[in-house]
Amino acid sequence: ASAERANLVTMAGDPTARDLTVHEPGAVPKSLGEVDVVLPLLHGPYGEDGTLQGLLELSGIPYVGSGVLASAVAMDKEFMKRLLSQAGFDVGPYEVVRPRDWATEEGRAAVRLAVEDLGYPVFVKPARAGSSMGIAKVERPEDLDPAIESARHHDPKVLVEAAIVGREIECGVLEGIGPMDRPEASLPAELRVTGPHVFYDFEAKYLDGSTEVDIPARLSEQEVADVQEQAVAAFETLGCEGLARVDFFYQESADGGPGRFIISELNTMPGFTPTSMFPQMWQATGLSYQDLIVRLIDSALRRPTGLR
């Protein structure tokens, strides 16, 4: 629902209670009764960054998706890249601009020099925003400062990434069915941005249909196996649960050898409408939208809250 039509939902103040109350405009608050499981299908800060997950943990309410730590790490692009890079994944060159780095002219000059070392063009983005909000492609040094200022409206910490030339590949991951089962990867998809957009920004993603999709992506069997293995391994490295979508750039080898998959980000709560990429990838893999929801609910109900 849009923000204009959304209703306020509150949790009981008693941490032992598991009921939710809906507050509709002009109506008496209505209890939903005890809740079996929550699907926190929210984007951005406080929804997918571990905050809501922590509240549900404190209330003992089962929920779909990753826990507090994995949600927080995946939401913060700096720490996601740090952990994945330490584990051996290719995440591409980047610089972090913290508030203190941007507070003085001396600090800003140091940021500009660091970005020069990355080489233009670069992508400037909030470190902890969702849905491609606040992202800009910067082609010239004189456009860097305005792009950072714009990103800082969404998050005081900003990431500057070297632009990577490559195909945009996505892969869905689901938690294994049994407690000893490894996570499973979907068939990968490829995105191609068309029209006036120079990258997969908010408008291309949600508003004007400027994206073409191949599901499955046109990759060899070995390339599919490689990207699926990397997606599952990244899921496990961050300690994810339930579901995730891992986004890659794929650079083909000039000599015809194995290409290079570079992780762009890992999303612990990907878009989940029937036309979103995550359900579409699983549909192509053989899991219907309804069965996907049932599987996620089952995994949430099997999993205890608290330490595990």
Tell me about this structure:
- The protein is α+β, with helices and mostly antiparallel strands.
- It folds into 3 domains: 8-63, no CATH class; 70-90 and 164-302, ATP-grasp fold, B domain (D-amino Acid Aminotransferase, Chain A, domain 1), CATH 3.30.470; 94-162, Dna Ligase, domain 1, CATH 3.30.1490.20.
- Helices cover 31% and strands 22% of the residues.
- The chain is built from 9 helices and 13 strands.
- Strands 8, 9, 10, 11, 12 and 13 form a 6-stranded antiparallel sheet that branches. Strands 4-7-5-6 form a 4-stranded antiparallel sheet, covered by helices on one side.
- A hairpin with a 6-residue loop joins strand 2 and strand 3 (30-34).
- The longest helix is centred in the last third of the chain and has 17 residues, at 221-237.
- It is globular, with a radius of gyration of 20 Å.
- The two termini are 33 Å apart.
- The mean pLDDT is 91.
Sum up the structure in keywords.
alpha+beta; 9 helices; 31% helix; 4-stranded antiparallel sheet; Dna Ligase, domain 1; D-amino Acid Aminotransferase, Chain A, domain 1; globular; 308 residues; 6-stranded antiparallel sheet
Residues in β-strands, percent: 15-25%
Q: Would you state the CATH class of the largest domain?
A: Alpha Beta
Largest sheet: 6 strands, antiparallel
Q: How many runs of DSSP E, i.e. beta strands?
A: 13
Radius of gyration using CA atoms only: 20 Å
List the helices and strands and how they pair.
Blueprint: E1 8-11, E2 19-23, E3 30-34, H1 51-59, H2 68-75, H3 77-86, E4 94-97, H4 105-118, E5 122-126, E6 136-138, H5 144-152, E7 158-162, E8 167-174, E9 184-185, E10 189-193, H6 202-206, E11 211-214, H7 221-237, E12 243-251, E13 260-267, H8 277-285, H9 289-302
Antiparallel strand pairs: 1-2, 2-3, 4-7, 5-6, 5-7, 8-9, 8-10, 8-12, 10-11, 12-13
